[in-house]
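Recall that a protein's primary structure is simply its ordered list of amino acids. Everything else, from secondary elements to tertiary packing, is in principle encoded there. The following example makes that idea concrete.
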Amino acid sequence: DDRGHPLGRLEERRLWADDLDRGPLARASHATGPGDGPLSAEPPVLDLHLVCQVHDRLRIDVAMRLGPEIGVVFGPSGCGKTTTVDQVCHETNRELFRVNITAETDEDDLLGGFRLVNGETVWQDGPVVQCMTRGGVLLLDEVDLGTPKIMCLQPVLEGKGVYLKKVNRWAMPSPGFTVVATANTKGKGSDDGQFVGTNVMNEAFLDRAGAACFEQAYPPPKVETRILLRAMASCNIPAKENEGFAKCLVTWANNTRASFAQGAIENIITTRRLVDIVKAYAIFRNKMKAIELS
């Protein structure tokens, strides 16, 4: 039972994609890893039809205002977890550092290390330290793919400074520093093999993920249809003429999800895949071919 798990005991909110017309997007910067140099102030390329809002008007930026403690967004694949955090940072003018966690991610990737520059070894802060000192939002994407190598983040998750032992220096968080993590599971791994590579996470690490926990599901049919119509508009597809196509795609996706929940099939159609079908349709202008290729 997930309710007995540290993440399961937290307050959960369901995040749903919603309206685009909510004012101009603010800028955010992204770090791809240590040693990338100064971060660009230019905003990344976004899927503008996927602007997310939280059910019952509880926005995820409320969690960002809690302080440096971590907030976790978990849910199935392709439902918009990362996009939600990305868009909220744009709307609230927060600098975003996205770090994708893998089985190989370690302290050197996260906190920094020595790099060869012009024939000399030079220390360069990693994305976590850069984010801390700049007071940004640190997004640990797919955190449940990590191994015990990411335990170096424990003091960071507590909102405290971190000791960089290789250079004998303390790095302290600046005001505004916040940690948000996304995950497909609640840190218990995937017994059914749906999310291959996810790990059973360290209990002490999970216990520090305690400021807020949000569950994000697939959007309801009405909202998902609006997402597809906006995707069509962004791809120069006449949305009004293809509204029936969008509704059929959403109905199909929801039927597969219901069948999956009953154990009748092994795969589901995600919101991300529906958007990919729209993009393929924009290229080939053939609905069946777009579905087959996506």
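The longest strand covers residues 112-117. The chain has a mean pLDDT of 76.
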